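re: ur question from yesterday

yeah so i grabbed the chain u mentioned. its 127 aa long if i counted rite. heres the sequnce exactly as i have it in my notes:
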Amino acid sequence: QVQLVESGGGLVQAGGSLRLSCAASGRTFSTYAMGWFRQAPGKEREFVAAISSNGGSTNYTESVKGRFTISRDNAKSTAYLQMNSLKPEDTAVYYCAATAARPLSWAPITHNLYSYWGQGTRVTVSS
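ran it thru and got these structure tokens back, copy pasting raw so excuse formatting
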């Protein structure tokens, strides 16, 4: 079992930055691929970014490429999402997710491939 707790959300003006953190419980964090998803009001949950268990592979949705960076610190059992040049359309609740990684380079982009989810952290970008 893995428990995930997100933090770092808040209100920011367009063009600003936020860094989301996802702290995981357990001693097997390094064996899990991690993903970030978001859900805006009235919309379905969508993939944002993913990172493989060894950190060697990443995937991003097209709309955040060049602005967001996913990373992880396995020693701290924490994944991060650095968000720069934020836009109003980035407003959403952001969720981190974890899944056992096979192979180690796997960074899945589909939400139903993830087994564990955090409670979410809200990001609001004002124009």
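noticed a couple things. The chain has a mean pLDDT of 95. also The longest strand covers residues 92-100.
anyway ttyl
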